[in-house]
Design brief:
Zf-an1 domain; two-stranded antiparallel sheet; two-stranded antiparallel ribbon; 7 helices; about 40% helix; rod-shaped; repeat; zinc ion binding; AN1-like_Znf; AN1-type zinc finger protein 2A-like protein; metal-binding
């Protein structure tokens, strides 16, 4: 051959044809003959990089530009969420993210409302806590630590008293004769102060403290002793009530 270096062979292993005017693939940079120079003819692995087809939005039918290396699905999805002018896309953007943050210079919107329990304004996830949006009503609306135990104790006491009164009224409606007889047995012909004295003595006697007596005329008794006796009487009354609350009386 006069020109042994003229031309190149096709890069397809099953072809290897010597071509004096070969074609060079702009994707894989290999040489091919006129039968295999197309991407599909030689199964080019880099053909996707040269695919410049522009996807079209299915809602507004507008072409959506894609960046290099970005898939068409991601570009179309971002276009629908941000730039699509179709009524279905704009309606979705206006209804889903309609809870705007109330903090100044913040433009974030959330799917669900996040309302502060102190100032009753809506905020985003970043500014939902009172300390994050500098809530000016947090200290006013928040109860102090010292007032909480007293309020809870008072509420519990009121609830307990109401329950005791309700049960006591129901027991009195079921057995009026028993209550009247018991009151008459305690009081009899005594005055109100003497009846109260006798009731305290009977309560202490049932609790195993039968040797304690409280003279009515003794004015030198200490306040602590009176409080102790009254507490013992109340405790004994509660014990009797808890003992008889599960009993059923037929009128």
């Amino acid at each position: 051959m006069e020109f042994p270096n003229l031309g190149e062979q096709c890069s397809v292993s099953s072809c290897k044809q010597l071509d004096f005017l070969p074609f060079k693939c702009d994707a894989c940079r290999n040489v091919f003959c006129k039968q295999h120079f197309l991407y599909a003819a030689h199964s080019c692995k880099e053909a996707a990089l040269k695919d410049n087809l522009v996807p079209v939005c299915p809602l507004c039918n507008e072409p959506v530009p894609c960046r290099k290396g970005e898939t068409a699905d991601v570009a179309v999805s971002q276009h629908i969420d941000e730039d699509c002018k179709d009524e279905r896309a704009t309606g979705k953007r206006n209804t889903v993210y309609s809870n705007k943050c109330s903090l100044r210079h913040c433009k974030n919107k959330e799917l669900i409302p996040l309302v502060c329990k102190f100032c009753e304004r809506n905020f985003c996830l970043k500014h939902r806590h009172p300390t994050d949006h500098k809530c000016d009503k947090e200290q006013v609306g928040q109860p102090t630590a010292q007032s909480l135990p007293s309020k809870n104790a008072a509420a519990a006491a009121l609830e307990r008293i109401s329950k005791l009164n309700a049960v006591s009224n129901s027991n009195q409606s079921h057995k009026p004769s028993h209550t009247e007889n018991q009151a008459f047995t305690v009081q009899g012909n005594l005055s109100e102060e003497e009846a109260l004295q006798k009731a305290l003595e009977m309560s202490l006697a049932d609790a195993g403290r039968t040797n304690i007596s409280i003279p009515l005329q003794n004015t030198s008794i200490l306040q602590e002793e009176e409080d102790r006796l009254l507490a013992a009487a109340i405790s004994e009354s509660e014990r009797e009530y808890n003992k008889n609350k599960n009993k059923c009386y037929l009128s």
